[in-house]
From TrEMBL:
SUPFAM superfamilies: PRTase-like (SSF53271). Its EC number is 2.4.2.9. The keyword Glycosyltransferase applies. InterPro entries: PRTase-like, PRTase_dom, PyrR_bifunctional. This is Uracil phosphoribosyltransferase. It comes from Haliscomenobacter hydrossis (strain ATCC 27775 / DSM 1100 / LMG 10767 / O). The keyword NADP does not apply. It comes from the Bacteria.
């Protein structure tokens, strides 16, 4: 395999965001009892894009939207050599008896989602939590977690790395598959 391969370019990226938003509208209609929560840090870029698309292009009037930091809920937080930086949690609502759409860019082992579910408990007990990811790396799942709404499924071996790049930070929206994690840095 080449050192890197673009698996979603900017045109398909935009179509994928649009498709995911339409799936959410089909499922949750006017979002009256539904909120969107982006997992800090990488899920926030996707959750903001989803939120803006729902409001600006699909005219959804009111959506509770938050950003959830999971740093201190991770199972590797206290491990030697772990270099983690906490982000700010921005949630001015409770999730009690709501449908929660938890958003992250890439689903890999499932450990990030596990930490997010634990952190989410501080905001109440939701009726339902569903996961939206741009990329589902189907191999190497360590926990029984699956994405309800998925942009693309990628079969990649353990040494490979999937990176989502955003126009506002990298100049172009795209998803890249690297044959080695070191190449992605």
């Amino acid at each position: 395999m080449d050192k890197q391969r673009i698996i979603i370019g900017s045109e398909r990226f935009a179509l994928t965001i649009d498709r995911l938003c339409h799936q959410l509208v089909e499922e949750f209609d006017d979002f009256s009892n539904t909120c969107i929560v982006g997992i800090q840090p990488r899920g926030v870029a996707l959750s903001e894009r989803i939120y803006r698309h729902l409001v600006d292009h699909l005219s959804i009037q009111h959506i509770d939207y938050g950003k959830l930091d999971i740093t201190f809920y991770r199972d590797d937080f206290r491990r030697p050599g772990a270099s983690m930086h906490a982000s700010v949690t921005e949630m001015d609502f409770l999730v009690e008896k709501k449908n929660v759409i938890l958003v992250d860019d890439v689903l890999y082992t499932g450990r990030t989602v596990q930490a997010a579910l634990t952190a989410l408990n501080h905001y109440g007990r939701p009726d339902k939590v569903e996961l939206l990811t741009l990329v589902d790396r189907r191999f190497n799942r360590e926990l029984p977690i699956r994405s309800t709404f998925t942009g693309i499924k990628v079969d990649a071996v353990d040494e490979a790395y999937v990176k989502v790049e955003w126009a506002h930070t990298h100049g172009e929206d795209r998803v890249i598959l690297f044959s080695d994690k070191k190449e992605a840095q």
